[in-house]
Amino acid sequence: MMKTLPTFAFSQQLVPIGSVARAGNAERKLKPGVGNVNSLKRVLADLDTVLHERGRLAIVAVLAAAEVLTFTELRDELAMTDGNLSVHLQKLEEKGYVGISKHFVGRRPQTTCRLTPQGRRAFTRYLDLLQAIVHQGRAKVGA
């Protein structure tokens, strides 16, 4: 039986060009200005490469909408193979973005996955950076 996944709200915090970008502990001021290629390059450089991969981004997006999902529910929702999902989950777990627990239900093993607080923050930051890119692109169109 497939669960209906709840919806989730994206962060309302924008990271406009001209604001402070944080990568690790370093801070730097992004240069303002529509059409500033260097500003866009800096924002793109700040994108989390672990989350930027399509399969991992899909996993994190689905887990952000649900408190916990079983491996099977996640696999079926994303239409991934067991091996593909397993490798992506391993990378997300190594980064601390996803928590994985294994237990038995009756005599059957069950793997459950959840987004960690660190994973939720990383996903929110990723979305904020994408919003900044979109915002800059729309500003160009309006100029």
What can you see in these coordinates?
The model is unreliable at about 5-30 (pLDDT under 50). The chain has a three-stranded antiparallel sheet. Helix content is about 50%, strand content about 20%. With about 140 residues, the protein is α+β, with helices and mostly antiparallel strands. It has a single domain, classed as Arc Repressor Mutant, subunit A.
For the structure shown, list the relevant keywords.
single chain, 143 residues, alpha+beta, Arc Repressor Mutant, subunit A, two-stranded antiparallel sheet
Q: Could you give the distance between the termini?
A: 50 Å
Number of helices: 6
Radius of gyration: 18 Å
Molecular shape: elongated
Segments where pLDDT lies below 50 for 5+ residues?
4-31
List the helices and strands and how they pair.
Layout: E1 20-23, E2 26-29, H1 37-45, H2 49-52, H3 54-65, E3 69-70, H4 71-78, H5 82-95, E4 98-105, E5 108-115, H6 117-142
Antiparallel strand pairs: 1-2, 3-5, 4-5
